[in-house]
Amino acid sequence: MYFPQFIPYSFIEKEASHVEGFSPELALVTVGGGKELEEKLVVRPTSETAHFLPDFYQWANVTRWEMRTKPFIRTLEFLWQEGHTAHATLEEAEKEAMQMIDVYTKFAYEEAAIPVIPGRKSRVETFAGADKTYTIEAMMGDRKALQAGTSHNLGQNFSRAFSTQFADENGQRQHVWQTSWAISTRFVGGIIMTHGDDAGLMLPPRLASVQVVIVPIWKKANEKNEVLDAALSIKDILHTAGIKVKLDDSDQRTPGWKFNFWEMKGVPLRIEIGPRDVSSRSVVVSRRDIPGKPGKVFGISMEPSVLVPYVKEKLDEIQLSLLNKAIAFRDSNIVDVTSYDELKEAISQGKWARGPWVGSDEDELKIKEETGATIRCFPFEQPQGPKTCLMTGSPAEEVAIFAKSY
Amino acid sequence: MYFPQFIPYSFIEKEASHVEGFSPELALVTVGGGKELEEKLVVRPTSETAHFLPDFYQWANVTRWEMRTKPFIRTLEFLWQEGHTAHATLEEAEKEAMQMIDVYTKFAYEEAAIPVIPGRKSRVETFAGADKTYTIEAMMGDRKALQAGTSHNLGQNFSRAFSTQFADENGQRQHVWQTSWAISTRFVGGIIMTHGDDAGLMLPPRLASVQVVIVPIWKKANEKNEVLDAALSIKDILHTAGIKVKLDDSDQRTPGWKFNFWEMKGVPLRIEIGPRDVSSRSVVVSRRDIPGKPGKVFGISMEPSVLVPYVKEKLDEIQLSLLNKAIAFRDSNIVDVTSYDELKEAISQGKWARGPWVGSDEDELKIKEETGATIRCFPFEQPQGPKTCLMTGSPAEEVAIFAKSY
Fold this sequence. Notes:
By secondary structure, the first copy, chain A, is of the alpha+beta class.
């Protein structure tokens, strides 16, 4: 399915908090085919008000007016996948919304090696038009938080505004209960800023479009053929084994230049092969995530029965290692706080603060104003035991996570 | 790659004939983030003026203001794939433009079973900003022509407007020679209107998302299990063989209802299986493209070694048969004409007219006004021998094809 990106302004207006939330971000088409339009058209910021199917799913571009843009993270136009579902009961909608944030969490951990924290947004941060917003929050290399995906329980807000009804078992018309959820090209920025270092990208093997780059090395012209032959046969072996492999056989650039180039591109593994390796029927394997000598292993046999399992194991190791490094980094940068002073201290050090919270919306906005931090989420994983709100001193049921964010 | 869909109006204006051609079709964003914009933004009608890379390719939505829309064929917003290339010489650009129209022609014939006629557009019908436009023209079931894909040699028109230069072998700066080409969701409409009949869609097997539907048939409750078991095992056999197969095992609908439903959906082959078939370990196979009894074959063995090659052969037969039927239909509806009177006669009968042409742009526009037909193309495949222009009586080098079109 694909729904049009121009939404009549009157549709956007139907759900009151939705239009209130989105109106500062809208791009409006007012002229079409040379004529002033009678009704302005909104360039889709999201499709809650644009579709009329119970369930639909699309990959699309969306537009949100931004004055301060940042590549991948905050752009006037971005690409996303968005899903919308309708259900007979609140419980089913809630289950769907939770299931999708779980899908996104698994994707982040298992594919992108990003240890996101899933949780519920505060009222202040809830999607305009939703009853509840679930989020996955990721810690970037600069320790800012990135909202990397969201899933909303929309309740009956949109179905009441648009009179979207169904006949229940008793033949009674009921408004549907809806959800929507999305991740976007912003996630690409999340991958870059979670794993990248000063040498460039560092891509998790499961998402890398090139998992292994082969760099042949020769000095004398008479070495070239045998080295290239061996490199090509290694490429075939790995390709046949289902590994995404690239042979950089150009003779315009030196091996050193190629090393830097493919490191910058984030390729997880590099295989080097020179004349001496050809003689010994072995190769050198270097890991992108461990710079220099420590990440280099010499004398790995070219035999498929040795090389293929070795490469696959290394790719798995790198995948896991990136995740573990990111988990350690995340956990060493979250501070448990019990008072507003401790919270301010943590935030001023660039860290995330986690503490019990039953504050009001005003309290939350005050923290934002005074520290720049917002409630990223009430994490699903909560500590046991009695809690006291860091701001009000009242008994609290949950901890919230506070951080500066993109 | 992906380029933004909002193009500053001043960019569109840079190539004079481009803006002249597109300005009646533009949607303009004049308000962003609640403020009147200093410069209007055009919602991408195409990306010649939106990109700054030598070569790029994207799947995207584009917007062209249309007052009279028709699903798939002419819509205010549509999806397409667009490619843009830059070359050092006119010859290379010409070669690329021709190669792409050839790619589209092959796709139309081999995948969509649509016998398009490839050729060159007249000056009047050339893309706004191009030196030459190549097209594939398809005859729909109502005998109207559909421009199903185009490839443009843009010359240096855009590179001069945007100062897109390169350094040649002698270090001299030269303007690049460019091409662009696209097919769109309109092609989906072409498939529907080429092959469809009163019962619904008829999809060419190579493009069908379901190639075979299995409809199990039972009357008594005790027959259900054995029929469903057999149906499921047939599904597995076909699926394993790489055939896109669907088992419609719902018990909400009768077999007759399912037959109609999947015919409407255009599924090329239907397999029916009832209790007697289970006993004889055989099935009934029905072709979508041959209605009723003549398209039905009884007693095809369920043995994988028989069933799989049989189904594959039938799918190939249907693919070829759809193409041949469309070729026969097309050829019986193109009339060779030698005078304007003959042309008018052919067009008034709803046919396409093919005749020698060296008329002026004014002559061409006169034909459009008087008959509703336009020059669809000068086909690449030209008849031999001397020719006399059907309109002017002057010696002509080429025949053109005239038709009413979508």
